[in-house]
């Protein structure tokens, strides 16, 4: 029984981890390459969730919903880059924070105008609902398993693109030395737009997959966003590898903390005290982890910039 | 012979495969003006950063006034008496010239956890700062915001800030870089006036400045010092001519 | 200029009483409390160049210090406010000791993340209302001195603290300490080269700023008579930053002007019957657009539009 529970929570942690990774991968590149603080990344997550839900309901086909949701988020991301963010690259971080904070207010309210302020119901496709029997008699939701598979597949794809292609070479060079990439005669504006669109699509993918298992409502992106920041800080800004490692660590620590911290504390202190302290501590765990990592490695686990 | 004021032994710093500083032994005698020259990419900047403390060497030692300072931070070295000017002018652009120098005075006037008295009305900071501005010939420009000073004046201001820390050794990184002929002539005259009074390490491209100021010259090529000597010796050195001066002349 | 604004604020209670409009007293008290918070943020954001995206944490800590003590029956105002300031300073020291070592994007994200941690902590403690927060049964008691239940007396207390803080920061930023702080913002490499080690100065400023904001939190909970984790919501931190920018960064009057402008703007967008209903209903959409436009086109803030020299550096 205990082992089954542990396995289940491990898979949950993995699932949270890959979702965080999908968000963090694009954002860490935007930070690293454009040196842009983009708070509105969470809005793209929300846009992905809404568009996919809308198109799934409108067309009746999950695949079409996913496809249109993804390309819709990509378009929204590129438009945002062209209209608002492009002018911010040369500004200082403070301006970037405030302008993208403005974007968040704008998007949350726009979504509320279009779909209302309360949560909408996102359904999972019939093919992916239900459970599968895994080892040790563990029955695990098929949909969550699918998220893990998609997440890991995207991670492999990213590993290939970033590690093995010319675009990837430019991205890596851009994250460690921006002036050098510009000196190579690369169209830096185009590179920025491509990277941003890419990151937007990944955030949209995370959002549309999250739809059926979380609430789809205005502001859903920001709660995830701050956890994604924790991932990026732990992983090291600009590092995809770091984002992947940190996302899995954070996903695992958070899930395990919420599942097991309370019963474990109850062994040491009184159950009543554990009832209070357990959830409180569990909700703080990833931030404490971040503090601990930073105390030892101020640049994160995989710093990408040279000195 | 007395111990040199500053010496490095076996100083080494690599970036990947590049040996930016390669087993450098370097001595500066108290009171001398010692120029470091070398072609672009010879590792002059990396070398001076290890003297000032901005970079840690991979191996080797830096001694200053009889003390090993290899692991000391930039501010600590400043308090030991090492001051530096930067290749690219580094001043407080939004402060007045006097504020700039007064801050340097303040840095060496005890701790600055003083929260109440107005620092700009503090004679203990302003008067020494004004005296130094007078010495570098900027006193008439004391209240001008530093960003509005001419380029040459900004370079002078930077040296004034270095002097305000009452250093035993001045590290000057290309003090006449980017100056017109007149400006650089004035700067050379000013530095000539400091000579003897202060020990100076001068990193410079301008050969007029080097040969009119230096008591000794060290030539840095590909991270190694290939020669050290008086200006006359360096002029006569065949290896130096081949590696460096020959290309220049 | 600043003196004129302060005189105007001082004259509000009798005028509001004259026209029987207590609402404005309440609104302006709220403005001044946020101005105190913005003044404290301006110290590190404006003069110190530290983009702290977590300043709402100290509003929350100050508010919870008062609320929790009151919940346990301790309503002595001196004690409550001292704990509010002390606890904020301690938390600022802890957060600062890690975040002040970093700069740029790291600093922004770390301050944001730690504030979010405190927000979740507030939500998870059921004893103090969790998600819903709790009522402050009794306002802070200063027996024999001042009664915070009297709107006018409370107003003048907030006013006095605001004046005091404006003066304190004015002295602080022009002191030796303040000049070092500004020097680090202006040119860190130069500051190190002349012999300053920036870390202790920046950390001290971070702690002072947190402590000041803690007092603003104590005032805020007395103002609302209610406290919730929402005080520490990250959007609150964003609003505080926006106040500083909107008013004019690194100016004395800026935070006050910015707090007034933002809160009045929010109030007008939300509630003004002069505006069509579709603006009132979706005011955040328009606030977002205004925010973006201000950042892109009005960088110097309101203080930059005013006559007279307000800049301190």
What's the overall average pLDDT of chain B, rounded?
A: 91
Number of helices of chain B: 9
Approximately how much beta-strand content do the residues of chain A carry? under 5%
Distance between the termini of chain B: 36 Å
Helix percent band of chain A: over 70%
Strand order of the largest sheet of chain A: 1-2
Q: Structural class of the secondary elements of chain B?
A: alpha/beta
Summary of the model, kept short:
Chain A is mainly alpha-helical and 307 residues long. Chain A has helices at 2-34, 41-59, 62-83, 93-115, 142-164, 166-176, 178-183, 188-210, 220-235, 240-268, 271-296; strands at 131-133, 139-141.
Helices and strands, with pairings:
The complex is a heterotrimer of chains A (307), B (249) and C (313).
Chain A: H1 2-34, H2 41-59, H3 62-83, H4 93-115, E1 131-133, E2 139-141, H5 142-164, H6 166-176, H7 178-183, H8 188-210, H9 220-235, H10 240-268, H11 271-296
Chain B: E1 6-15, E2 18-28, E3 33-37, H1 44-52, E4 59-64, E5 67-68, H2 74-80, E6 82-85, H3 97-107, H4 123-136, H5 151-164, E7 169-173, H6 181-194, E8 199-203, H7 207-213, E9 216-221, E10 224-229, H8 231-236, H9 238-248
Parallel strand pairs in B: 3-8, 3-9, 6-7, 7-8
Antiparallel strand pairs in B: 1-2, 1-4, 4-5, 9-10
Helix pairs in contact in B: 3-4, 3-5, 4-5
Chain C: H1 2-10, H2 12-18, H3 22-47, H4 56-71, H5 77-99, H6 104-124, E1 134-135, H7 151-174, H8 176-186, H9 188-193, H10 198-224, E2 226-227, H11 234-247, H12 254-271, H13 277-281, H14 283-297
Antiparallel strand pairs in C: 1-2
Helix pairs in contact in C: 2-3, 3-7, 3-10, 3-11, 3-12, 4-5, 4-10, 5-6, 5-10, 7-8, 8-10, 11-12, 12-14
Commentary on this structure:
The complex is a heterotrimer of chains A (307), B (249) and C (313). With 307 residues, chain A is mainly α. Chain A has eleven helices and two strands; from the N terminus they run ααααββααααααα. In chain A, 75% of the residues lie in helices and 2% in strands. Chain A has a two-stranded antiparallel sheet. Chain A is globular, with a radius of gyration of 20 Å. Chain B is an alpha/beta fold. The mean pLDDT of chain B is 91. Chain C has helices at 2-10, 12-18, 22-47, 56-71, 77-99, 104-124, 151-174, 176-186, 188-193, 198-224, 234-247, 254-271, 277-281, 283-297, and strands spanning 134-135, 226-227. The relative contact order of chain C is 0.18. Chain C is globular and about 60 Å long. Chains in contact: A-C, B-C. Chains A and C meet through helix 4, helix 9 and helix 11 of A and helix 6, helix 11 and helix 14 of C.
